[in-house]
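Re: export button greyed out
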Amino acid sequence: AQTVTQSQPEMSVQEAETVTLSCTYDTSESDYYLFWYKQPPSRQMILVIRQEAYKQQNATENRFSVNFQKAAKSFSLKISDSQLGDAAMYFCAYGGANSKLTFGKGITLSVRP
Amino acid sequence: DAGITQSPRHKVTETGTPVTLRCHQTENHRYMYWYRQDPGHGLRLIHYSYGVKDTDKGEVSDGYSVSRSKTEDFLLTLESATSSQTSVYFCAISESGLGNEQFFGPGTRLTVL
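Workaround output, generated via the alternate export path:
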């Protein structure tokens, strides 16, 4: 079974600074996808970024980028120029051949003005 | 935004009573999922469906049943609610399996007294 580990329960960043959220996973599959979801206080789950395992190039979406290290099974999210609206809980998720997502426990990010 | 609604949005019930949560989509997506979210556990899959009348168990399926008689509706039933089933329940949909983004509903907060 696949597992996703987010070892840091909380992080804090100064507004306009950069922060990196870590995630590791374990799998024996060769074809899979990785996701970061954001959950603001509204509780709505929002996709931030997606990475295909077969692509070596790291995904980027505006201020959000990932550092995907396939051999190390590591998938970290970097948020540049942090904004107050980035404050939320962030979940790393693994999607494999069975069409299901396995989520990490999440990390709460606070942004200091 | 993907057309996903959940009803009810909030429910308080007593131990031993049956409860049914409804997820309705207007996107005609094939896959539908039910998750529960609890502090310290992230999101955990309860059941999912890969087509009308096609369902399978997730990680935490004990005490829950599902039904999908139409593409647009996916019902989650707690036959006899227990206090351990107090949680926030999310429905999600996906157009296909591997690699596709899951779109989430707004969630249902269920309290079992």
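The mean pLDDT of chain B is 94. The button fix ships in the next patch.
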